[in-house]
Amino acid sequence: MRLILKNARIIDPASGFDDVADLWIEDGLIAGIGRAPFPGNLVDLEGKILAPGLIDMHVHLREPGGGHKETLATGAAAASTGGFTAVAHMPNTSPVVDTPYLVRWVKMRSRGLPARVYPIAAVTEGQKGKKLTDFLALKSAGVVALSDDGHPIAHEGVMRRALEKAREVGVLMILHEEDPDLSSGGVVDCRIAGSLGLSGIPPDAEERMVARDIALAEETGVPIHIAHVSTAGSVRLIREAKARGVPLTCETAPHYFVLTYEALIQYGTDAKMNPPLRSEEDRLEVLRGLADGTIDAIASDHAPHTPSEKARPLSEAPFGVVGLETALGVSWTELVEGGVLPPEEVLAKLSLRPARILGVPGGRIVPGAPADLTIVDPEVRWTVNPKSFHSKARNTPFAGRSLKGKAWMTILGGKILKAGNLTSEAEVPESVCTSTRTK
Ligand SMILES: [Zn+2]
Ligand SMILES: [Zn+2]
């Protein structure tokens, strides 16, 4: 069956294509772009933007072991609702995904979900920061990267061995940068900790490890990807390193370029994450990093927890906030509407760059590629209501926030998923489809 998407503003950040045209899909693949010369099932996308399927390169879908917080299925539903056709799933689960068996388990359990789930496995066994996992076996099992995310790799010798092994095997290392000697026991950024009666996490805890790992990447020539950049100092270190030609990429999350630690006062534990929210100066430098290309990608670091876990006091509640269903709207509002970046650049940071960094398909609109597409309504105004999330979790510091721009629909492998559908079997919705098939 041929599906024709008509009259969309098609933005392909890879080729720079940005024009109103039709796109047609056959057998799950993008078949052509232009003026559709034949009949088929039509979806009229006038006023909408058609982009490559968004890819969130950093999420925690909690399985195996954490299904009370989120499952691969509810996480994929949240992803699809938020406009993501693919996510990369972090391994700090229970048990930790550190064996080929568990990588295959994640892949098997993710089949048929409304978003592709790419597994990431641990760098060290049990994420304990000591013994390296079997990189080659994990790569053969299908990981897109390795990361001990949730924990730093504190021991420099272990990190160096990991990078050497990563080069041998050809697998990407994603780094959660935190010096535990400086952050240990900390709850929130040190500059607000005192007034809340809590112990603090200094910006230095992140920046020292960023500096250490830039030095290691520079020395070894092995590429690294730095997760969730949150401080002005980290942005500057990465900017300088890139200028010197160090092989590194990085991401930030929407909360770091929209919020500061002041949000803790209103949102309490729903604004507690690691790294913590920082100062206005840090926020502005993260925005500059996004604008000048220092920061390659935007990832949600979607980290669901149950309401009862987040109901505990700030000092005890777990770190993390959900983001899959707000990342696009928050980024669109702050960056496009805010005049920081043009639409194609925001879309690149949410699709093309993650695809390139992880080495996965997608991120481009080109005939022959799988038809993973995101349709954005750039004009719709909406208010974040956590009760309507498809995620199991509600822990967001964006509750009640007014946003402009939202995912209207995703298409996965040529199949239309009305935002939020739980299966990938959805038919073309009647309301948007007019069959013009002849005879
Ligand atoms: Zn992390
Ligand atoms: Zn994370």
Plain-language structure description:
The chain has 439 residues and is an alpha/beta fold. The protein has 2 domains: 2-50 and 370-435, Roll (Urease, subunit C, domain 1); 137-358, TIM Barrel, CATH 3.20.20. The chain is built from 14 helices and 19 strands. The chain has helices at residues 72-81, 100-109, 135-141, 156-169, 180-183, 190-196, 203-220, 232-243, 254-258, 263-267, 280-292, 307-310, 327-337, 343-358, and strands spanning 2-12, 17-26, 29-34, 41-44, 49-52, 54-59, 84-89, 116-121, 145-147, 173-175, 188-189, 200-201, 224-226, 248-252, 297-298, 373-383, 402-412, 415-418, 433-435. The strands form 3 sheets. Strands 1, 2, 3, 4, 5, 16, 17, 18 and 19 form a 9-stranded mixed beta sheet that branches. Strand 11, helix 6 (190-196) and strand 12 (200-201) form a beta-alpha-beta unit. Helix 4 (156-169) packs across helix 7 and helix 7 runs parallel beside helix 8. The model is unreliable at 421-439 (pLDDT under 50). The structure holds zinc ion (2 copies).
Task: Write the CATH homologous superfamily of the largest domain.
Answer: Metal-dependent hydrolases
Shape: globular
Distance between the termini: 14 Å
CATH topology of the largest domain: TIM Barrel
Biggest sheet descriptor: 9 strands, mixed
